[in-house]
Amino acid sequence: MARELCKDIRDKSVDLHKAGMGYRTIGKQLGEKATTVGAIIKKWKKFKMTVNLPRSGAPCKISPRGASMIMRLVRDQPRTTQQDLVNDLKRAELRARMDGAMYRKVLANNLLSSVRALKMGRGWVFQHDNDPKHTARATKELLCKKHLKILEWPSQSPDLN
Fold first, then answer.
1. 8-state DSSP, 57
2. Mean pLDDT score, 136-144
3. pLDDT the model gives residue 130
4. How far apart are CA 63 and CA 14, in angstroms?
5. Are the CB atoms for 37 and 30 separated by under 8 Å?
6. Which domain of life is it from (predicted)?
């Protein structure tokens, strides 16, 4: 893969070209090949700028914060496996600000499997507080559709806070 030139070198190439210097002379002065200088000048003539244009391709799957988290984990624990990293990233994703849609997704994916894993049987009662995402109409419909018994929770109760 070709290395990317810094903006200063590209700008100096254009400035020297404007001053009337040839590609070979500019290349010798800056320590670059004449073809590299020619490509920079050609791009400048076409787009009137020397900065690199955005490239096509798929967007990143992880955020810069996730990438730094991976680097920190691997630096601290060099024997970390790929699966450990995937699990840590999934847990970090759950630390994001939760809204109603995310809450319903968590319930749909994890509630019944957790009940089975805890071997709670049939007599269990689901409990959550009066957070707006818990009392949203769509959330209530989801819980009703799954035929869950829900513990009634008094709103703004000082006794239970």
1. S
2. 91
3. 81
4. 35
5. yes
6. Eukaryota
Kindly state the tokens that stand for 89.
């990233």
For residue 153, the one-letter residue type is: W
* Residue with the larger pLDDT of the pair 120 and 14: 14
Q: At what angle do helices 34-47 and 7-18 cross, to 10 degrees?
A: 80
CB of 142 closer than 8 Å to CB of 128: no
The Cα 74–Cα 66 span in angstroms is 12
Q: How far apart are CA 72 and CA 65, in angstroms?
A: 11
Going by C-alpha positions, the residue among 29, 24, 19, 25 that lies closest to residue 9 is 29
pLDDT (tens digit per residue) in 15-31: 999 999 999 999 999 99
42-49's contacts with Cβ under 8 Å and 24+ in sequence apart are 44/10, 44/14, 44/17
Contact present, 126 and 149 (Cβ < 8 Å): yes
How far apart, in whole angstroms, are the C-alpha atoms of residue 53 and residue 102? 36
pLDDT of 64 strictly over 70: yes
Distance CA 150, CA 161 (A): 18
Total residue length of the chain:
161
